Amino acid sequence: MGGDAREALLDRCVDFLKQGGFSQLSLREIAAGTGTSHRMLIYHFGSREGLLAEVVRRIEAEQRLALASFATEIDDPVEVNRWFWRRLADPALAPAERLFFEIYSQALYGRSWTESFRASVIAAWAGPVEEMFIQLGFEPADARQRARLGLAVARGLLLDLLMTGDRELLDGVAELFAQLVTAPPSN
After folding, report:
1. pTM: predicted TM-score of the whole model, two decimal places
2. Which sign, positive or negative, has the C-alpha torsion 71, 73, 75, 77?
């Protein structure tokens, strides 16, 4: 039952974040915004930082699920890339994405509360994206490199978008990248 209560509370925290962000809020403010107490947040997530990391983990899982689902419906890899970029570039996701990069930067310093984030931030994406490239006919080694390149470029473009807001230019860059990364290797 504790797992169900924790997941329900995490659902409310994710919904609250999507309404406008909360990385600058105290644990008490987050608790008030989600209809719980700060003690319950500590009980379930250990700390404010643990909660933030779990929120990011959940949103990342939702993004991977959406990508996998769409990729099974559409067999054009460029169109899959277009769709996923539009999803990532949606202004409604900006608060969650800012939080993602905030947690990412803390993980670079090896903060103990980012341990699970560090373990999954690359690995959870690399495998499924690599598999998509293999399904497109790329050799496993090439698919692995393209998956990591895709992950790096998507995150870099997203960070650029959050910093500059230059949507038109970055939409074009994302389109160019989709064309390049899915092109058959030259021999």
Report:
1. 0.85
2. negative
> What residue numbers bound the domain in which 130 lies?
49-182
- Residue 128 tokens, joined: 């499924």
> What average pLDDT does this structure show over 70-74?
85
In a domain, 30, yes or no: no
- Per the structure, the count of domains in the chain is 1
Domain harbouring 142, CATH code: 1.10.357.10
Reported as half-sphere exposure (CB side, CA atoms, 13 A), residue 135 has a value of 13
User: What mean pLDDT is predicted for residues 43-63?
Assistant: 91
Backbone angles phi, psi at 149, to 5 degrees: -65, -45
For residue 144, being part of any structural domain is answered with: yes
Q: What is the C-alpha separation between 122 and 14, in angstroms, rounded?
A: 21
CA distance 182 to 166: 24
How much is the CA Rg of the chain, to the nearest whole Å? 18
Close Cβ partners of 161 (under 8 Å, ≥ 6 residues apart): 89, 167, 170
Please identify which residue in the block is written with the tokens 């998507």.
Answer: 154
Residue 99 CB-density burial (10 A; 0-12 exposed, 13-18 middle, 19+ buried): buried
Helix/strand/coil for 127:
helix
How is residue 153 written in tokens? 């470029």
**3 vs 104, more confident:** 104
